[in-house]
């Protein structure tokens, strides 16, 4: 039921970054559920992670290791290795050790990632048994299968790839992401991996991954649930072009734009493939007094089950939108200054139904698959945009049956 | 699909408080949708109202009038008269004026209440045309039909009634409530009316309605949406016993307990009749550092669509519970101190799956209609309890089809 999400685009290989895929049989036999990534020596790896206090064992290890030289990233689906306590940390470490032993690197050079059911022991034996197949499969042109290999309830793999030229050289930024439910980012989200062959200094790369996440993964929500395993990684293999260590200059601007564009496409792909999604909804809040109140209003609208079911039903029940604006907690909000638009149709003017509005206009917008809800608060100059989905029968079915 | 909610109990009449019901045909022809209440001269009326910035026209009028002598409360369903701007205020005033004219009281002595669709003009003519029938119907023993008369998507009317004796006299506390969706109280909720024949000073009655709301209506959530029209009213007709003007003494304690018990039953009845509800869920958070963090955790659990769909599926997917605990925003929460129980079954001990836990134990609890989720945070001595429901296909159906 993905909304406007087709096959993966052309995925340009990134020099110095290889991917290998295998089937470990973690949750389902024969499914691709193990992805190994290898970065060339000298690569820089940056990342942002979930703010959930119950962050998973692999996230805890990643946080410890970031900043050191990283050579491998190993991802399994089917099991989140979250809420697994000390045994979970040991299990993640065992997987990393198996990779380290095979390639004669130190265990600290391997980052682990897991996604799937929370609270069950990680089947380390199955993963280590399948690792040799993933190792043998390592190739630079393996992005498409890797996109499949990190899927859980996703219905389609998600990828984005951009190239740009600078000083006669071609630079590549390519990435994949996964996620369809338990999506309400908080600093970083789900699993996302973006690699570039540019040569970027570690601290600058870390600043860039944070900036890109804030513009993309941190502006989407499906169900308001923040995962225990969210991770967004940015890898620079340093195979192309001069070293970049300042956030300035034309090359850095081009790279920044490319990374942000790829991150935005990957984030929006997650919303388009939201569990049970039949609509892709942009919520844009304008004329706010500050960023936070714009986001508060946008998320109140995006999380309201009443608005989400009305979107599913294609019902322009705008009363539910103003109710959500009203309870978003904006201090001293004046309802008579609020305007609301569905695409180009003004439905609420000065806090009440717009004189020009007809149900037919609203219904025509709501029939569409892609809908913009635009809210003017009449308080200031700030604006923020987030993306979300509707709430359908299918969401309930998927999540009621998830473990069966 | 109401959970454990049967027919209304015996509704003891309250001396000096009459109710009249009529059909105004606001949304559906022939449905009881208009309720008039008359309090004896000298009655005290207190209330708490929604915190929604888009609070409805009748709520705005009620807030202005509270504290003055009140003789009538007039409630319509089928139309919320919310987000209706200045015309909405005029419409509510017209309804009050019609009541005032008939009984030769001032318009300020009439409180208006509305519930139903947001943003449509109130059909004043239909209401005033039906008022004479409601007036002719005024009787002290009319609580049951009044309970029906304030229903919207409720499947059953909701009532509670308690009597207690003091100094040879019998005191009565009787109330009704409505609400099934758009339920996330914020200071007060939905429509609730509780009357007593005791004689209570105005300021004390206002303190009591606030206390009762905080223990009952402000501890429930169905979908996290705060209505524009929430109102909870407490009326003391002063027909029985001595005047009470201090929050002390045996009579006040008995009255307080009776009012809180009735409010609690009415609030829980709303949850039991939650839209599409198949479970009645108590979320109890213990060992918190303060009230707010207990409530933050409780509401994170109660609002998680993933937990709600797992409850619907009777799936003991406790990983979703710890994930919600983790993102509730409790500062410096230590996951290894967290324990979680389903009824008496310990599912999480020290942040991981309890060694004694089996899926069969969890599944056995989840099969029940009434479930207690108890969470120990290991941080302090505070505890808080709230009540909620699951998220079912039926919730989506009801709210997708609400206006059709």
Shape descriptor of chain A reads: globular
Head-to-tail CA distance between termini of chain A: 21 Å
Find the structural class of chain A using helix and strand composition.
alpha+beta
Any idea of the CATH topology of the largest domain in chain A?
Answer: L-amino peptidase D-ALA esterase/amidase
Helix content of chain A: 25-40%
| Beta-strand percentage range of chain A | 25-35%
- Mean of all residue-level pLDDT scores of chain A: 88
CATH-defined architecture of the largest domain in chain A: 4-Layer Sandwich
Number of strands of chain A: 17
- Supply the CATH class of the largest domain in chain A: Alpha Beta
Annotation field: number of helices of chain A: 11
By CATH, the superfamily of the largest domain in chain A comes out as: L-amino peptidase D-ALA esterase/amidase
Most extensive interface: pair and counts? A-B, 68 and 68 residues
Multimer state = homodimer
User: What is the domain total for the residues of chain A?
Assistant: 2
Unreliable spans of chain A are: 185-189
Report the major sheet of chain A. 6 strands, mixed
What is the rounded Rg of chain A?
22 Å
Give the strand line-up of the largest sheet of chain A: 15-14-13-16-12-17
């Amino acid at each position: 039921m993905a909304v406007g999400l087709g096959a993966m685009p052309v995925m340009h290989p990134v020099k110095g970054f290889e991917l290998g895929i295998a089937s470990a049989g973690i949750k389902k036999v024969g499914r691709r559920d193990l992805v190994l990534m290898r970065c060339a020596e000298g690569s820089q790896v940056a990342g942002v992670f979930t703010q959930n206090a119950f962050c998973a064992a692999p996230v805890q290890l990643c946080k410890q290791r970031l900043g050191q030289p990283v050579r491998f990233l190993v991802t399994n689906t089917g099991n989140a290795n979250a809420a697994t306590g000390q045994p979970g940390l040991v299990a993640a470490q065992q997987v990393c050790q198996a990779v380290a032993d095979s390639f004669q690197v130190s265990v600290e050079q391997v980052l682990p990632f897991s996604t799937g059911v929370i609270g069950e022991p990680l089947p380390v034996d199955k993963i280590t048994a399948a690792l040799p197949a993933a190792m043998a499969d390592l190739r630079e042109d393996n992005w498409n299968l890797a996109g499949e290999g990190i899927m859980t309830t996703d219905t389609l793999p998600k990828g984005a790839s951009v190239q740009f030229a600078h000083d006669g050289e071609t630079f590549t930024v390519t990435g994949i992401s996964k996620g369809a439910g338990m999506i309400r980012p908080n600093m970083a989200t789900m699993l996302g991996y973006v690699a570039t062959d540019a040569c970027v200094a570690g601290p600058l790369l870390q600043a860039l991954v944070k900036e890109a996440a804030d513009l993309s993964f941190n502006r989407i929500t499906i169900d308001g649930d923040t995962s225990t395993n969210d991770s967004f990684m940015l890898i620079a293999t340093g195979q192309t072009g001069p070293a970049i260590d300042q956030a300035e200059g034309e090359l850095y601007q081009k790279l920044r734009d490319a990374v942000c564009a790829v991150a935005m496409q990957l984030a929006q792909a997650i919303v388009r493939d939201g569990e049970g999604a039949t609509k892709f909804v942009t919520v844009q809040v304008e004329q706010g007094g500050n960023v936070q109140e714009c986001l508060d209003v946008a998320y109140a609208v995006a999380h309201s089950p009443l608005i989400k079911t009305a979107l599913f039903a294609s019902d322009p029940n705008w009363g539910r939108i103003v109710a959500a604006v009203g309870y978003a907690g904006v201090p001293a909000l004046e309802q008579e200054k609020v305007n609301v638009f569905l695409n180009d149709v003004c439905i609420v003017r000065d806090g009440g139904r717009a004189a020009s509005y007809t149900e037919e206009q609203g219904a025509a917008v709501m029939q569409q698959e892609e809908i913009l809800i635009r809210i003017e608060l009449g308080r200031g100059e700030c604006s923020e945009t987030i993306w979300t989905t509707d709430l359908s029968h299918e969401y309930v079915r998927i999540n009621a049956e998830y473990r069966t």
